[in-house]
Design goal:
Radius of gyration: 21 Å
Helix content: over 70%
Length: 369
């Protein structure tokens, strides 16, 4: 039913690269081809090679390099008069903005990318851009607004037999069910995504699905060992492909699993590890969520109650600024779980003065990938 997964962001002379290519290999090949295209005065090829460079940098957690690369790709595409290539560059920029927590900018860039994709007759970049908009809303918790878009994109991907996008949509819908307590449905969807990804040889999609399955069996069944086994398998893929962000989220999830099992010292070590990884790649959402897990672990290990309450209050402000409502609700639950309401007055007091997020987004969110 589904063909083998492919990577449409690897274009021009780089179409021979596999969806499972190591990002360091992608970066090397993309950089070499980009230099050749620039020397030959071929802006169209430079734009498409530059896209692969931008995406490799982004997925490796190199924010500044990725930002420079997607903008250079856009300028080259504009010089070449290639509307579709301009759309792809904007898609990369929008995806980077979401990764950095700049959700309003992400939406603007992805909306423009979808428009240019349609104008340029490239249905793939249009679909990727709409998927990016859906994922941005999902991360912020706008489930009602983007749930239908996820379902629409899933139906389109199934109809065209696009394994990679089918897997993405299934995982997004599964995450929404998981975050709203629909564990059985989430498990079924993650399981289907894992099967399709494995059949289509989509290693990255398979790793994300395993992470989702591990989360569900941990929180629903208390099956710590099965969850850790799946996370170890996913980690191997992340390391092989050099998926820095996915690896950091894998480590954070391992911390979650260990925390739920009452293995607080081990959880603390994993949260410290993921926190360092997210800080290195300047990914604010992952950093904040790792801080939350670390604060809870330290509290369980005997940290002073007042220090924990202060840490949670600071996290509430940070998460409000980023625009992650669901994660802020997790802070409130942490107060209750740890019996800290008295240490900070009330749970509501933690959020006093929390204003509009800095990038102008609303303040809904989820703990997503």
């Amino acid at each position: 039913m589904y063909g083998k997964a492919f990577a449409p962001e690897y274009q021009g002379a780089l179409t021979t690269l596999s969806v499972n290519s190591s990002l360091t290999d992608v970066l090397a090949a993309g950089t070499e081809q980009l230099k050749a295209a620039e020397q030959a005065g071929q802006p169209g090829e430079a734009a498409r090679s530059g896209l692969a460079v931008a995406e490799a940098h982004r997925r490796l957690g190199r924010v500044e390099e990725a930002d420079q690369a997607w903008k250079a790709s856009y300028r080259a595409a504009r010089e070449a008069g290639d509307t579709a290539a301009m759309a792809w560059a904007l898609w990369s920029g929008g995806t980077l903005a979401r990764q950095r927590g700049a959700f309003a900018l992400a939406r603007r860039l992805l909306e423009l990318a979808a428009e240019l994709g349609e104008q340029g007759g490239d249905i793939v970049v249009r679909g990727y851009s709409l998927a990016g908009l859906a994922e941005t809303g999902r991360i912020q918790g706008d489930y009602e607004a983007v749930g239908r878009l996820h379902e629409q994109l899933l139906a389109e991907a199934r109809r065209r037999g696009e394994a990679r996008h089918t897997v993405w949509a299934l995982e997004g819908i599964a995450q929404m069910h998981r975050n709203t307590g629909g564990y059985d449905t989430a498990y079924d969807l993650f399981e289907e995504a894992a099967g399709i990804a494995e059949e289509a040889n989509d290693h990255r999609g398979h790793a994300w699905a395993l992470r989702g399955l591990a989360d569900v069996v941990s929180v629903r069944d208390g099956d710590t060992e099965r969850a850790l086994t799946w996370l170890s398998e996913a980690e191997t893929t992340c390391r092989t492909m050099k998926l820095s962000s996915a690896l950091a989220y894998n480590h954070k999830m391992r911390g979650n699993v260990l925390y739920r099992a009452g293995r607080y010292a081990e959880a603390r070590a994993l949260y410290e590890r993921s926190l360092a990884e997210f800080r290195a790649m300047r990914e604010p959402r992952g950093e904040a969520l790792s801080r939350l897990g670390l604060a809870k672990s330290l509290a369980r290990l005997g940290r002073d109650r007042a220090e924990t309450a202060a840490e949670l209050a600071d996290l509430a402000t940070t998460l409000d600024r980023i625009g992650l409502k669901h994660a802020r609700e997790m802070v409130a639950r942490a107060h209750e779980e740890l019996g800290l309401a008295g240490a900070s007055g009330t749970v509501a007091a933690t959020y006093a003065g929390a204003g509009t997020p800095a990038d102008g987004t609303n303040s809904r969110a989820e703990v997503a990938r």
